[in-house]
Design brief:
Blueprint (H helix, E strand, L loop, with lengths): L1 E5 L15 H6 L14 E7 L5 E7 L1 H4 L4 E5 L1 H4 L3 E2 L6 E2 L5 E2 L5 E7 L2 H10 L1 E6 L42 E9 L5 H6 L2 E9 L11 E6 L5 E4 L5 H12 L6 E4 L16 H11 L3 E4 L2 H7 L5 E10 L5 E13 L26 E10 L13 H19 L3 H8 L18 H12 L9 E11 L4 E8 L5 E5 L8 H13 L6 E5 L16 H24 L2 E3 L2 E3 L5 E3 H8 L5 E8 L11 E12 L6 E11 L6 H20 L30 E6 L21 H13 L10 H11 L1
Parallel strand pairs: 1-29, 2-15, 13-14, 17-18, 21-22, 28-29
Antiparallel strand pairs: 2-8, 3-7, 3-9, 4-8, 5-6, 10-18, 11-16, 12-13, 12-15, 16-17, 19-27, 20-21, 20-26, 23-24, 24-25, 27-28
Helix pairs in contact: 9-16, 12-13, 15-16
Length: 752
């Protein structure tokens, strides 16, 4: 992999980088939840439903309780009818009246060993009355479909807690959004247009693909304090949700930090904390649960599958006049994994499409089925939306006889215009990245037979939110920074360290950054939404500004290059001044940053990304081999270059997996059939093609020192560029993911 960085500005950060968490991870000192043990710890296991949809007639735990070493067996009759969620509380901690997916938890066991717990769980006797399973989201919306959540109206919905419940047109609707731009009635525009194009697309369920499964450890102190060790990436949100479900005060719950490992969006949804709490309460001992990878693939947070219909009206020149999208997401058995109030993937359920379309109607529906619950995964709706949109654009271009890159340049948003759903964009860079892509990719040059190039253009917002951190100077000259944001590999601790060091103008070795638990750290929204560098960096800058101002005021000197300079040119070491100023105790400040856009017309930061991917297709087998991949990205200032490039490269590989191999498959009974990494395939080093990235840094963002987002920029444009390249190579259009040899071969045979 190679990288070209185009810099016209120079920031305060060097290209040398040592990750704050690097030594702990590389040495093995960092502990993940599955590594952590407590004295007298018990193991948990569950009795789970073998049916996708069934009534619970009877539960008998007698045999389970008789297993040697078992200390507790709990059902909903013991803990109450408790529901769990991030926004809508609809997932039973332990099912009581019915089960809604294969793997639903019915009973929880705590035992001295994992083997004893699992044996007891197998011996829980449950009598079921099987009900018709609904596995097709479109069928779930028909008049005669079984209603999966008849008590939906009684569920607590945080997003609508102080207002009327969300009105849904069908009881199996989880959530919905309807967004209009310009004239909401687009049909007259379609009727008068030069051409109207309509295309249909499908994307499947996908697992986030992290290697470390979820694990949970819960213990309760004698004073009633509940400690929760978990890889959840939003600990303060988790604490609030636990308080509601467990019906205990939030200030009695402490979410303890531990290693997360991979996340890719998937570790915002965890539920095992709840049954482990009740087991710990029942036994008076710590309880740990560690999922197997089969359990992860069967019940873990996954990307929503989607069916999309896109319709666009154009004039003679290919100008987009109006657009109508209809998206149906399979939300699975529960909506609990979605943090947004409208209960669709992401906040809007639709990607920010970087074209100027004056009139648009976007209709998004998320549907209950008896399948794996959907949750937020890296760029929650962009993978689906851009796979459809960027092929839709190519298909329009081919039909009109216009070069696909030229059609994009003709319609891409420019200054003063807004994106598809009326998003205001600060300094749109679509033209710049497309023109650079043209030059860097040798666009338009001839390729051998069976080989072709495909392009795509996507954009992603820089997320917002509010966070705070603590900064404390000790007498020995050490500056401690405590943040509440989990480190899931994105480099959050390093970002805070680099920003604080640069703003304070001190030796990096004296700044120590750590993640605190929820009783030590200040409120934080968690990792996700491409917001961490923006808001954590902003809080670090605010804290460093406050600390520097405090030290300079107290000392009467200026702090620069790790020394204090006084009048007349005299200076003093940082340690000497710190020792004097902290004689009566440490100096503490708080850094707070709120990046939320309270003005609806505020121009947000967006990173524009363009791909050119070359493929070679074997007509005899359908095998698709990627021979070259280029991405051009508008990235703003870069704080830690190695970590940033890791996000770029990793995002491409992540997008590669979702494009050509990843699919979570269910059989006709709702059972996941890809229950190992042998069946659910992830890309490895041998799958990675030649990849080159060009980073444009001369358009600074609103983050600290001009930063923008990094985490969700490069995975979303891979699939449509590959699909467009396959069409250009052999003339078959792949409207569904993944783009496998079998599917390409079938399409070639169908066309023959």
């Amino acid at each position: 992999m190679t990288t070209v960085v185009e810099r016209t500005t120079s920031g305060p950060f060097s290209d040398d980088e040592i990750r704050v968490d690097g030594r702990d991870k590389s040495s093995g000192r960092l502990q993940f939840t599955a590594d952590i043990k407590r004295p007298n710890m018990l193991w948990a296991a569950y009795a789970k439903s073998p049916y996708a949809h069934a009534k619970i007639v009877r539960i008998d735990t007698t045999a389970a309780k008789a297993v040697p070493g078992v200390r507790a067996v709990l059902t909903a009759a013991d803990i109450g009818h408790r529901l769990w969620g991030r926004n809508l509380y609809d997932w039973p901690v332990l099912a009581w009246d019915r089960v809604r997916l294969i793997g639903d938890r019915v009973a929880a066991v705590a035992a001295e060993t994992r083997e004893a717990a699992e044996e007891a769980a197998r011996l829980v006797e449950v009598e079921y009355e099987e009900l018709p399973a609904v596995l097709d989201p479109v069928a779930a919306l028909t008049a005669g479909a079984p209603v999966l959540h008849p008590d939906r109206a009684s569920y607590y919905h945080a997003g609508f807690a102080d207002k009327a419940p969300m009105a849904v047109p069908h009881p199996n609707v989880q959530g919905l959004r309807r967004i209009t731009k310009g004239d909401g009635d687009v049909e007259p525009i379609f009727a008068a247009a030069h051409r109207v194009f309509e295309h249909h697309f499908f994307t499947p369920r996908m697992h986030p693909g992290y290697i470390e499964p979820h694990a949970t450890l819960v213990w309760i102190d004698d004073d009633g304090t509940v400690h929760v060790q978990t890889p959840n990436k939003a600990p303060f949100n988790l604490r609030g949700a636990l308080a509601r479900t467990l019906e205990i005060p939030a200030n009695t719950i402490v979410i303890e930090p531990s290693g997360i490992g991979g996340d890719f969006g998937g570790k915002g949804l965890t539920i095992d904390e709840c049954p482990c709490y009740f087991l710990a309460k029942a036994t008076g001992r710590p309880v740990r649960y560690v999922q197997s990878y089969a359990e992860e693939l069967n019940n873990g947070a996954g990307r929503h599958s989607a069916r999309m219909t896109l319709r666009t009206a154009v004039d003679e020149r290919g100008t987009f006049l109006a657009h109508h999208s209809q998206v149906v997401y399979d939300g699975g058995a529960y909506a609990a994994g979605k943090p947004g109030p409208f209960l669709v993937p992401g906040q809007s359920g639709y990607a920010t499409v970087p074209y100027h379309v004056p009139n648009a109607l976007i209709e998004v529906t998320c549907v209950y089925t008896n399948a794996v619950p959907g949750a937020h995964v890296r760029a929650p709706n962009d993978v689906q939306g851009f796979f459809a949109w960027e092929q839709h654009v190519d298909m329009i271009a081919h039909e009109l006889g216009i070069d696909p890159l030229e059609l994009r340049l003709h319609n891409v948003i420019r200054a003063g215009q807004t994106a598809l759903m009326n998003e205001a964009v600060k300094q749109p860079m679509g033209v710049a990245v497309l023109e650079r892509l043209r030059r860097e990719s040798a666009y338009g040059s001839a390729l051998p037979a069976g080989r072709a190039r495909g392009i795509s253009l996507v954009c992603r917002h820089t997320g917002a939110g509010k966070t705070s951190l603590k900064m404390r100077l000790e007498a020995d000259g050490t500056i401690y920074v405590t943040i509440g944001t989990p480190e899931q590999g994105g480099g959050q601790l390093t970002v805070a360290h680099r920003v604080a060091t640069a703003v304070l103008s001190v030796n990096p070795a004296r700044v120590m950054v750590r993640r605190g638990n929820t009783s030590e750290a200040l409120q934080d929204p968690g990792t996700g939404g491409s917001r961490v560098t923006h808001i954590v960096g902003g809080a670090a800058r605010a804290g460093a500004d406050a600390m520097r101002a405090e030290l300079e005021e107290r000392s009467g000197m200026r702090l620069r290059d790790d020394r204090f300079a006084g009048k007349g040119g005299a200076d003093e070491s940082f340690e000497s001044v710190a020792r004097r100023l902290c004689a009566a105790g440490p100096i503490e400040v708080v850094g707070t940053y709120d990046g939320a856009h309270h003005d609806p017309h505020h121009e947000g930061d967006f990173c524009f990304t363009a791909y050119a991917i070359e493929v070679e297709v074997d007509r005899e087998t359908g095998c698709v081999r990627i021979t070259d991949a280029l991405v051009v990205i508008d990235v703003g200032e870069i704080i830690n270059p190695i970590g940033h490039q890791g996000q770029i490269d990793g995002g491409f590989v992540y997008g590669l997996g979702s494009s050509v191999m990843e699919e979570l498959l269910l059989d006709e009974n709702g059972k996941v059939t890809t229950l190992s990494l042998g069946e659910y395939k992830l890309p490895t080093m041998r799958d990675i093609p030649p990849f080159r990235s060009v980073l444009i840094t001369d358009n600074p963002g609103q983050g600290p020192q001009g930063t923008k987002a990094a985490g969700e920029l490069t995975n979303t444009g891979v699939a449509p560029a590959i699909a467009n390249a396959v069409y250009n190579a052999v003339g078959v259009r792949m409207t569904g993911l993944p783009i496998t040899a079998e599917r390409v071969y079938a399409a070639l045979q169908a066309r023959a």
